[in-house]
């Protein structure tokens, strides 16, 4: 997991921080947005409870190696770069950064292939193919 912020511009929802959590095996990614850094603990507690309540038999562990931290850092950069590109292409103001990062995460879980498994993170995590027929270009009316 990795936390970035505070951003220079607050989002429309008045958020300044983003926490990115990545499953080490499947590379399935969750993003959480919040206004202040001290909200991190509550977000992590509710996330862990949600995953446990879904009765998913997956092991969750804290990052312990520099390589795992590197995965989170690279995913952050990928999400940020995708968000900047989407905002620029849609000619939207930077205050939409939260929506753009969330959309980038959503799409990447469904289209990026995990080389070692030959499947998307969504396939691995949910054990089924995602439906993406409803997706539209970011920023469309």
UniProtKB/TrEMBL annotation:
Superkingdom of source: Eukaryota
GO terms assigned for molecular function: nucleic acid binding
PROSITE patterns membership: INTEGRASE (PS50994)
InterPro entries assigned: Integrase_cat-core, Retrotran_Ty1/copia-like, RNaseH-like_sf, RNaseH_sf
Residue ranges constituting the Integrase catalytic domain according to the UniProt record: 38-129
One GO term (biological process): DNA integration
Coiled coil regions, renumbered to chain: none
Transmembrane segments: none
Name of this protein: Integrase catalytic domain-containing protein
Organism: Mikania micrantha (bitter vine)
């Amino acid at each position: 997991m990795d936390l970035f912020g505070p951003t220079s511009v607050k989002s429309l929802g008045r958020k300044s921080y983003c926490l990115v959590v990545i499953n080490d095996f499947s590379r399935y990614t969750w993003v959480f947005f919040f206004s202040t850094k001290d909200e991190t603990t509550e977000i992590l507690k509710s996330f862990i409870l949600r995953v446990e309540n879904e009765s998913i038999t997956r092991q969750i562990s804290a990052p312990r190696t520099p390589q795992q931290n590197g995965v989170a850092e690279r995913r952050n950069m990928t999400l940020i770069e995708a968000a900047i590109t989407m905002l620029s292409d849609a000619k939207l103001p930077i205050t939409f950064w939260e929506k753009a990062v969330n959309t980038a995460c959503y799409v990447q879980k469904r289209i990026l292939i995990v080389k070692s498994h030959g499947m998307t993170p969504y396939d691995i995590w949910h054990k089924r193919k995602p439906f993406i027929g409803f997706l539209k270009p970011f920023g469309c009316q």
